[in-house]
Amino acid sequence: MAIYDFKVNNIDGKKIELSQYKGKVLIIVNTATKCGFAPQLEDLQKLYTKYKDRGLEILGFPSNQFENQEPGSNEDVKKVCSINYGVTFNMFEKADVRGKDSLPIFNYLISEKPFRGFNLNDPQQKFFNTFLEENFPESLIDDSIKWNFTKFLVDRNGKIIGRFESPVDPLSMESYIEALL
């Protein structure tokens, strides 16, 4: 199994084969427009604008699994992402990203880059770890997606290079992206 073996529906319901992204550097991220991390959509867009001509693609997967932070329809998500955050990168249909109904691509990403904990030396990650411990302790017992805006970086050959947890600002991934481009 490889990243390019998956097929997913884009936000307009059209079936997309991920094989069309062969040779590209990818960021695959689960999103939610009502999440406190939603401003990351702007930073993801900045990265996309800066690097798309060099081969970066961003694949956004909205999910309503975390505290009902993406309750609208696919059309609603598309509108909010475009109008509020200027998103022009690829968005896909709302879906589960953890649990028994999770999109197969997220099961694959997790198997390749399981959760390894938060960097507790980073104040934002430490705060978020405490938030999860206090409110959703069950989420910390497995390798799954912990929250919205978990970002996976994939090289041009389809290898998952890194997993960046929710509190990690996408712009801090820039040196990793540049190394792969």
UniProtKB/TrEMBL annotation:
Q: Where is the active site?
A: C35
Q: Which protein, by its recorded name, is this? A: Glutathione peroxidase
What are the protein's UniProt keywords?
Oxidoreductase, Peroxidase
A Pfam family (short name) is GSHPx
Name a biological process GO annotation: cellular response to oxidative stress
Domain Thioredoxin: where? 1-181
Family, according to the entry, reads as follows: Belongs to the glutathione peroxidase family.
InterPro entries for this protein: Glutathione_peroxidase (IPR000889), GPX_AS (IPR029759), GPX_CS (IPR029760), Thioredoxin-like_sf (IPR036249), Thioredoxin_domain (IPR013766)
Could you give a GO molecular-function term held by this entry? peroxidase activity
